[in-house]
Each structure stands twice: as structure tokens, then as C-alpha cells.
Amino acid sequence: MTPESVESLIAEIEAEDHIDFGELAIGEEEARSLMARHFCDIDRKLAEHGLSAEGRLEVMAAIAAHTMVENLVLHLGRLRGAAATADFRAWMRRHGLS
Question: Among 4, 22, 57, 60, whose Cα sits 20 to 30 Å from the Cα of 37?
Fold first, then answer.
């Protein structure tokens, strides 16, 4: 695993699921590079501590899952603020998200 290979995979994912950087102070390529280097650094440190490839993969999956939960919470918060209709609030309650 190299930062370049991870960056390439991130770019492929983003081609299908584009991230809107809007007016953020960081660009797409810079963000991909930063996260790719970070993940490779985590992998290297875990390997240095003797964690197997399977163990490192499990840690990476947990990091990805945590990030997805965080993303869900952020999106729901934004939706909750943007949509104050009774129908939307009812839908949120039905799905246990209120």
C-alpha cells in the first residue's frame, strides 16, 4: 500500500460519489493526498507494532465505519436544520432518527 495507490483508489470512488468541496480551503487532490498519507502512516505504525495484515485491515475498516457514522450524523444534522416540515420530522421518527 502506497499513498499513490490509495489516492488513485479514492479518486475512483469519488468519480462515482463526488464530494462537494465548495468554498473549503482545501482542494480535492490535496485532501486525497493528505488522507492517503495518513492511512499509510497508520498502516505502517500498526505493522511496526506487529499487527497482522488481517488485523490492520480490521482497524482500517473500523476507521472507515466510524467515519461513515460521523458523516451520517453530520448529514442528518444538516437535513434537520434545512427541513423543518412535519413530513420530514415524521419520516425521521419512523426511522428512529429524531
Answer: 22
Residue 65 has pLDDT above 90, yes or no: yes
* Residues 5 and 32 sit within 8 Å (Cβ to Cβ): no
Give burial (CB, 10 Å; 0-12/13-18/19+) of 77: exposed
Could you give the 3-state DSSP secondary structure of residue 2? coil
Residues 15, 13: Cα–Cα separation, whole Å: 5
Q: Could you tell me if 26 and 9 are in contact, meaning their C-beta atoms sit under 8 angstroms apart?
A: no
Grid cell 482497524 is found at 59
Point out the least confidently predicted range of 21-35, 53-67, 78-92: 78-92
